[in-house]
Amino acid sequence: MAFNELGNLLDDSLPLPIKGKVYRVPAPSAATGLRVQAIMQAAATAADGGQADREVLADAAERDMYADVLGTAHAEMVADGVEWPMLKHAAVTAMVWIIQSKDRAEAYWNTGGDPSQLAPNREQRRSTSGAANKTRSRGSSSGTRHRPANRRGGKGSSGAAHK
């Protein structure tokens, strides 16, 4: 068995429909992908109160990240007069694709970027995971048992009285 050509196995574009037109975002170069991952990691570290790599974040400020992640679709969107919020949403969706997956990018796109829509509530998670069932579980047990009254002369016993 031989390895198939990887380019034939992977879908190397991200189709984003905007105002009746589908813009194809090409796969980023390895350098762009690595830079996006480094920037997102640094931003997450900074958001968590950690020490972010200033050099990585400065690099992001120097470059037009949206143009890099959208590739040829960026110039096409600008030429078509796509509004800024839509272009920004397309670029962030492309970043999600780069650092996570096409499925996660699609989820992000379809929620309009609303993070509350990305994490389903408990009922939805249970219904889709198969974890929910209609069988009632036994009551929780702490591992202790209820003890009957002391049979050797303690309170409530009918045994001989202490002398």
| Number of E strands | 2
Spatial separation of the terminal alpha carbons: 91 Å
Taking all residues together, what is the mean pLDDT?
78
Shape: globular
Strand content: 5-15%
Q: Major sheet, described briefly? A: 2 strands, antiparallel
Number of helices: 9
Structural class assignment:
mainly alpha
Q: Helicity range of the residues? A: 40-55%
Question: Which stretches are low in confidence, meaning pLDDT under 50 for 5 or more residues running?
Answer: none
Numbering strands along the chain, what is their spatial order in the largest sheet? 1-2
**Using only CA atoms, what is the Rg?**
29 Å
Taken in chain order, the helices and strands follow as HEEHHHHHHHH
Structure description:
The protein has 163 residues and is mainly alpha-helical. 50% of the residues lie in helices and 7% in strands. It has nine helices and two strands; from the N terminus they run αββαααααααα. The chain has a two-stranded antiparallel ribbon with strand order 1-2. It starts with 5 loop residues before the first helix and ends in a 34-residue tail after the last helix.
